[in-house]
Amino acid sequence: MQYLLLIYEDEKALHDRDEKTRIQVFDEYQAFTASVREADQFVAADALQPTTTATSVRVRDGRAITTDGPFAETKEQLGGFYLVQAKDLDEAISIAARIPSARFGTIEVRPIMTFG
Amino acid sequence: MSASAHDRLQAVLRTDRARILSSLIRTCGGDFDLAEEALHDAVVAATTQWPQRGVPDTLDAWLLQTARHKAIDAIRHDHHKREKLDELGYAPEVLHEEEELAPIPYDMLRLIFTCCHPALSEEARLALTLRTVVGLPTSDIARAFLVTEQTMAQRLVRAKKKIRDARIPYRVPERGDMPERLETVLLVIYLVFNEGYSASSGEQVVRRELCAHAIHIGRILSELMADETEVLGLLALMLLQDSRCEARTNEEGDLVLLRDQNRSLWDRVQIEEGLRLSSCVQGGESHGAYAIQASIAAEHARANHADDTDWREIVRLYRELLRVRPTPVVALNHAVATAMAYGAEEGLRLVDALREDLDEYGPFHASRADFCRTMERWDEAADAYERAIALSTNEPERRFLEGRLREAREASSN
Q1: What is the pLDDT along chain B (414 residues), one digit of tens a residue?
Q2: Which of B397, B362, B404, B413 is nearest to B381 (CA)?
Q3: Which of A18, A107, B60, B144 counts the highest number of beta carbons within 10 A?
Q4: Whether B79 contacts chain A with CB within 8 A
């Protein structure tokens, strides 16, 4: 079954992070991604540009309403994701716990909807 | 249906329903609803077949196997279920090959750990554990937690849906995850116990029975995980606390403090078992929070009279507890024990350091009030009792504090 692991982190804290930690986390992500691929769990992954680059779109009464910013102001912001293949929630949780950002922010684990 | 066959069916359901269900859920690929429906159908089959063909030799095995066949039929006729279970490797053919005829004890552990999975909300864990592990009817659980039956039924539906949709696995956690997962199980059991323990004699029986249900789950767990000291520690703690049940309230339903309780009303059988378990655990090296709390309860249980209580030992134990569980509430209990062992002034000194953390916590003010009362600082005591009353969450406790407040005001004006 597939799970989407949504990576939430405080962007300000992320921005204020010192260079040394930044590099260390980057290296950890490299190693982590490699291990997920190795275990045949990797489906997709990407980092997102910060919420300052976000645009929200709503269509109401046939009109597209476009606004600057993410859909909601939150304490931690969505910064990236991994789409993984896991046999059950416990396996998905153990992958999520190894995401380097997990110790700074929160990883939301969501099962992908299966139809039929 | 003949009386004998009916009685025996009821008897096996009373004692074995949870065990049968726990094994059935496994063979149904972790599907709680499928298992419950299949078991229900098997019970219906028993009510017609047992009077005609005689009661089988092993009742639980008969029910389990019959339910299995019902589940297989249900899967065959529902292609969604079939697809899903195929994906998990639980095809009907696999179910047929199931070698174990009777319920497996290990399946109870699978059931308990799944019901207490951290991915379920706390209230979902409590509800699902009481429904499937204890077998309480939904209406009883609703009354025990003071919600409507509909609310509780929906809570159970949502919990089972989360298990299905997020695919929470039906298994005992691996060694690496065990400490955290066991902690959630023990917490669920202790929460159930505390709901029952805090229910006063004026409240419904179904609430006070929660203590017995918690102890029952604790026993099951202690049989299946006999080398886990915290499991034994929790059971010991619950037995020792529950042993004081009869003495905790008087005829008017008022609260009786530990030091004023009639100890001849304490349940000696529970105390004996609690003390035995507690000393079993004491032998080991690392002492977890429940084991230490059990040791503290054991100190009270061993004292035939309140004056015989070894308060210095209790203070030592609270210091140990503070190391593993450094919370303000534990610090408060440590302060109370310190007052008993070393005087109210010492206790007050320790307790005042906790004001910032516990200013909204009733027992903090009640304890302060009690120390001030002992030192005859009546004005301060009265103020603190007022605060405690304002924060009190149950009737007998409130009445008790109001009595103390009257006494303090009277003494103050003299």
Answers
A1: 566 888 999 999 999 999 999 999 998 889 999 999 999 999 999 999 998 898 998 999 999 999 999 998 888 888 777 776 666 666 555 555 556 678 888 999 999 999 999 999 999 999 999 999 999 999 999 999 889 999 999 999 999 999 999 999 999 999 999 999 999 999 999 999 998 887 765 567 778 889 999 999 999 999 999 989 999 999 999 999 999 988 888 877 777 888 899 999 999 999 999 999 999 887 666 689 999 999 999 999 999 999 999 999 999 999 999 999 999 999 999 999 999 999 999 999 999 999 999 999 999 999 999 999 999 999 999 999 999 999 988 787 888 899 999 999 999 887
A2: B404
A3: B144
A4: no
Domains of chain A: 2-48+78-111 (3.30.70.1060)
Q: Do A88 and B165 count as a contact with CB atoms less than 8 A apart?
A: no
Give dist(CA B366, CA B390) in Å, integer. Answer: 11
**C-beta atoms of B167 and A88 within 8 A:** yes
* Cα angle value A61/A66/A72 (rounded, 5°): 105
Q: Which residues of B touch A94 (CB under 8 A)?
A: 177
Residue B396 at interface with chain A, using a CB cutoff of 8 Å:
no
Provide, as residue numbers in chain B, all residues whose Cβ is less than 8 Å from the Cβ of A111.
165-167
The DSSP symbol for A21 reads H
Question: What are the residues whose beta carbons fall under 8 Å from the beta carbon of A36, sequence distance 6 or more?
Answer: A42, A45, A82, A84, A95
The number of angstroms, rounded, from the C-alpha of B307 to the middle of its chain's C-alpha atoms is: 31
Yes or no: say if B302 and B325 are a contact pair by the CB < 8 Å rule. Answer: no
Min Cα distance A111 → chain B (Å) is 6
Using a CB-CB cut-off of 8 Å, the residues of chain A touching B169 are: 87-90
Which two tokens mark B370?
A: 């009690």
A115 contacts chain B (CB < 8 A): no
Q: Write out the H or E segment, with its range, that includes residue A78.
A: strand A77-85
Chain B residues 115-174 with CB within 8 Å of chain A? 119, 165-169, 171, 173
ipTM of the prediction = 0.89
Enter the DSSP assignment of B255: B
Pairing state between β A2-9 and A77-85? antiparallel
Facing residue for A1 by CB, picked from B119, B167, B171: B167
Set out the domains of chain B in order of their start, with CATH numbers.
3-103 (no CATH), 320-414 (1.25.40.10)
Q: Which residues of chain A does B162 touch, with a Cβ-Cβ cutoff of 8 Å?
A: none
Partners of residue B83 in chain A, C-beta under 8 Å: 116
Q: What is the least distance, in Å, from the CA of A49 to any CA of chain B?
A: 29
CB-CB under 8 Å, B167 with A89 = yes
CA B140 to chain centre: 15
CA distance B258 to chain A (A): 44
For B369, the token pair is 């009030």
Contact assessment for residue B322 and residue B292, using Cβ atoms and an 8 Å cutoff = no
**Whole-prediction pTM:** 0.89
Question: Residue B251 in contact with residue B278, Cβ under 8 Å?
Answer: no
